[in-house]
Amino acid sequence: MIKERIRQLAKDHAAEFIEIRHHLHAHPELSYEEYDTSAFVQQKLQSWGIPFVVMAKTGVVGLLKGKNPDKRVVALRADMDALPITEENDIDYKSTKPGVMHACGHDVHTTCLLGAARILHSLKDEWEGTVKLIFQPGEEKNPGGASLMIADGVLEDPKPGKIIALHVHPGLEVGRLSFRNGMVMASADELYITIKSKGGHAAAPQFTADTILIASQLVVSLQQIISRNNSPVNPSVLSITSFQGGHTTNVIPSEVKLMGTFRAMDEEWRFKAHELIRKQTTELVHALGAEASIHIDVGYPFVLNDEALGNSARQKAEEYMGAGNVEETELRMGAEDFAYYSHQVPACFFRLGAGNKAKGITSGVHTPTFNIDENAIGIGMGMMAWLGATV
Q1: What's the mean per-residue pLDDT of the chain?
Q2: Catalytic pick from 34, 79, 107, 139?
C-alpha cells in the first residue's frame, strides 16, 4: 500500500534529510539572494534524475511524472529565503552568516519538499498524475517570490489543478498537523507617511505647525478607520510601528516619518481602507497646517484555502497521522505570499507541528532562538509526498 511505502521511505531517509536541513540552516540567504540554496536544490534534483527549470533567477521548478501523467497535476511549494536576524542558538549547524538566519523555517520547508520529491520519484510507478515541485525565492519581502514565479509561468505548462504547501508551527507539538478552510492569513500592506512643516523653536510653537503633535493625532485617528468603517466581524489590523522625528529638546522638527502595516482578509475592504487612510492622512495634516505625503506599498493578498481541497487534504492527513493528531488552524493576521497562488489555483496551506515543550523547543518564528524538533522533518516530507500522490 502506497501510504505505508511513503511512511517507510520517510523513516528510512529522515536522518539524511535532517543533515540536508542542517546544511541549509547553516548557509542561509536573504530574499532574492538564494543563489547557493538554489544551486543546492538543483544539484539534489539532478542527482535523483528529476528534471527541473530555473525561474525568477533563483526559483527551481521540478517535474515528476507518475502513471497517466495527464490525469492530474498537483503543485507542491516550498520557500527558500532567510531573515535578517542574528542567530542565538548554540547548535552545531548554527548560521555561518552573521545577521542572517533561517528564523521562519524555510530551511525546513525546502528540506521537506526535497524529501517528498525523493519519495515520490522512488514510487513513480505507484501513483497517478504529475507533481510540480516549486522551490521559490523571496517569501519574506515584497513583491513576494510567488508573484515573480507566477509571472514567469510557474502555473502553466502544465497548469496545476491544485497547490499545497506546509509551514512549520512551533506552537503546535511535533507529530501534529493543523488545517483551516477559507481565510487563513491576512493581506499585508506597508504604510510610509511623511509630515512636513517649516519647523521652529519649541518655546514658540505658534510660529510653525507642530509635526510631532500632528503625527501623534494622526496615529490615534487612523485607528478610527478600523473601528468605525470596517465590520467588527471582518478581521483587520492597522498598526503604526515607527515614529521618527526630532533630535533635541528645544526644536520642533520640520519632518516626522511614520511607518506601519495594514492587514485585512477582504480584498474589497482592503482597497477601500487604502483610500480612507490616504484621505484621513491628507486632510487631517492639512487642517493642522502641515503637508503630508503617503505611500502604501501593496503587498500580498490574504491566503484563501479551497474548501474541497482542504477537506480532502485533512482527510488524507487523518489517514496518514491519525485523526487525533490533526486539528484546526487558528486564524492568523500574519501574511504569506503563498496567497498569490491561492487566488489562482485551488490551494491548501497547512501547519506542521515543530515544537516540543518537554525539550524546551518553544521559540516562535522570526526570533533569534527559533528552532524545531527535527522529528518534524520525516513527518513533513512524508505528508507532502502522501498529499502529492493522493489528493
Answers
A1: 97
A2: 139
Count other Cβ atoms within 10 Å, centred on residue 358.
8
**Domains within the chain, CATH numbers bracketed:** 2-185+303-390 (3.40.630.10), 187-297 (3.30.70.360)
The single residue of 29, 81, 140, 374 carrying the catalytic annotation is: 81
- Residue entry with cell 471582518: 234
Instruction: Confirm if 186 and 265 have CB atoms less than 8 A apart.
Output: yes
Q: What is the DSSP letter of 258?
A: E
For 304, the enclosing helix (H) or strand (E) is strand 303-305
Which residues 6+ apart lie within 8 Å of 259 measured at CB?
Answer: 190, 191, 192, 193, 240, 241, 242, 244
pLDDT of residue 84: 98
Active site annotation includes 157: no
pTM for this structure? 0.94
107 in active site: no
d(CA 306, CA 342): 8
- State residue 147's pLDDT score: 98
Please report the pLDDT score of residue 175 as a whole number.
98
- Partner residues linked to 294 by β-bridges: 193
- Give the dihedral sign, CA 60/66/71/72: negative
Give the tens place of pLDDT for each residue, 238-271.
999 999 999 999 999 999 999 999 999 999 999 9
Whole-angstrom distance, CA of residue 234 vs CA of residue 368: 33
CA 195 to chain centre: 32
